[in-house]
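Retry 2 of 3 after timeout on previous attempt. Resubmitting structure tokens to design endpoint.
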């Protein structure tokens, strides 16, 4: 049985004091929660939030990192700096990184391997654009992003990989994929993982859904066989909306 994994991606929101308020509320509301939890604040709030979630059932995540360990990379943040702050997980290949900041599969793959090398858990985000879905290419796009994202990743490292399926047309739009449509892609991606790493690995890998997850649709999505959790954006910014998702029945 796979564990549910509910993650909040706070994107470019919140000052340190706002982030601390939310972290404190989540620590208290989720302390008896049965699932696996993560919050991913901005880099600037990692230290503040890290101090509050340390020793709790909420993991500390970053939203991105550089593909190099250190060097002349103005404006980038390194895996060593993240580890120094107690970061346990890093979100990589988010659609906003792919489409707004033009990160390609090869770059994302280097980041995935670097994160694993340093013992971080990596959440590899995949997902098709609306025009790709309309052209019947959703599976193909997700397959390519999965295969290229995981290129060179050893089977022994797969326990530190989570895949997040986030159809780009569902992110921040209020349009959620139907549980059936999302489950179909999750099942397909699980098959792709099976082809790469075998049936046992496919059965074990956690595949989160992201894209307008709300308290109202969380349990319907989670009820699906292949949906193992959520990567939540907008609704992760308030305890009132994140807690019911995290504690979904
Ligand atoms: P929304 O939940 O705001 O659609 O964002 C999803 C997302 O991009 C999480 O990484």
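Retry 2 succeeded. Sequence:
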């Amino acid at each position: 049985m796979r564990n549910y994994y509910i993650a909040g991606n706070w994107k470019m929101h919140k000052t340190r004091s706002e982030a601390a308020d939310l972290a404190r509320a989540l620590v208290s509301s989720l302390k008896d929660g049965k699932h696996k939890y993560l919050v991913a604040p901005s880099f600037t709030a990692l230290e503040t939030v890290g101090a509050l979630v340390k020793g709790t059932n909420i993991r500390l995540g970053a939203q991105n990192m550089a593909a190099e360990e250190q060097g002349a990379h103005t404006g980038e943040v390194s895996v060593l700096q993240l580890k120094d702050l107690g970061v346990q997980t890093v979100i990589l290949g988010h659609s906003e990184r792919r489409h707004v900041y033009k990160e390609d599969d090869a770059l994302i793959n280097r980041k995935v391997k670097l994160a694993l090398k340093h013992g971080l858990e990596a959440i590899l985000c995949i997902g098709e654009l609306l025009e790709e879905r309309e052209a019947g290419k959703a599976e193909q796009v997700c397959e390519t992003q999965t295969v290229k994202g995981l290129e060179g990743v050893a089977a022994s490292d797969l326990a530190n990989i989570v895949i997040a399926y986030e159809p780009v047309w569902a992110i921040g739009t209020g349009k959620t994929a139907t549980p059936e449509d999302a489950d179909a892609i999750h099942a397909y991606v699980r098959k792709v993982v099976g082809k790469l790493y075998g049936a046992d690995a496919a059965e074990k890998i956690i595949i989160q859904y992201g894209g307008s997850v709300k308290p109202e649709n969380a349990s319907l999505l989670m009820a699906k066989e292949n949906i193992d959790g959520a990567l939540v954006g907008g609704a992760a910014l308030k305890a009132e909306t994140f807690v019911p998702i995290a504690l979904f029945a």
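Attempt log closed. The pocket of 1,3-dihydroxyacetonephosphate is lined by residues 9, 94, 166, 171-172, 210-213, 231-235 (CB under 6 Å).
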